[in-house]
Amino acid sequence: MKASRLVAPLVLLVVAIYLVATAPEALAASSKTERSLTTRSLFMVLANENDIARSLYTEEIVGPGKKIGLAFSEDWADPAVLAGPLPAVFLRCCAEIISKKSSIKLRLASDYPIELRNQLVGTELKRFQEMKDRGVPVFYVNEDAKRQVAMFPDIAVSMACVACHNSHEHSAKSDWALNDVMGATTWSWPTERISHKEALKIVNDFRGAVRTVYSSFVDKIRGVKGMPGIGLGWPADCISLPDPDQFLAECVKRASGKTLNILMADESWK
Ligand code: HEC
User: Fold this and answer.
1) I need a labelling partner for 25 at 20 to 30 A (CA). Which of 31, 110, 152, 268 fits?
2) Res 84 pLDDT > 90
3) What residue owns the CA closest to ligand 1's atom 28?
């Protein structure tokens, strides 16, 4: 009886000593080998974040915005032009911002572009055909540039895409139809893996870029006579536009579920 009473505290003591002795070592080991993500997962997250921001902007700002008297133009950045960026230009502005913060690159291009600089050529064009034939994003390595690349289809999700491209004077094609693959968004990064910390920073940089570009648009019309108010609602609800925080919050709300699922499915956790 006496002996068994002694055994339990003794076992606890041994376990406690073992934990104290081994824990710092285990912690040190795990912090030395920082976890990394496959670059492919980062590309999938970014494609999701970009799809959400682009369709939110196209469908809930550009579409209804036009009905309440807003203009959207290629030369929106000109101080004399009272307009917002076109969806493709919105994306290009975001691409410029994030490329200054890390080595990530984003490009929107097509086999039949409006702008010549957006023309797909060479290997890019070959991969684009492959992506269209297989109906899935393609991932490859650009050996010359030594970069990992991911190409995602850019689809005519609304008649606004079709109508504007078909009627644009510089368009290389005038018979686009709904759901056509109008082009591709291409992401690239130098290495096959990326630390979790750096990957999350890039996602955060992209969200920040979306807020910055949207913010420069609303700053142009804030307080201008005859223009919608800012921060009172969405164009579809009333004569107003969401402010930059409301716009970004909606992007984050719509994108986060899928972003988290992609991150959790990454092989680095297995
Ligand atoms: C109001 C007109 C307009 C709308 C709406 C529009 N685009 Fe564009 N799009 C343009 C212009 C102009 C460019 C060229 C912009 C640039 O690169 O300076 C462009 C560029 C592009 C490009 C790059 C290749 C090219 O043509 O230069 C793709 C791909 C594209 N748009 C797809 C779409 C999709 C998909 C939608 C709908 C979600 C859409 N666009 C909505 C006018 C429009």
Assistant:
1) 268
2) yes
3) 183
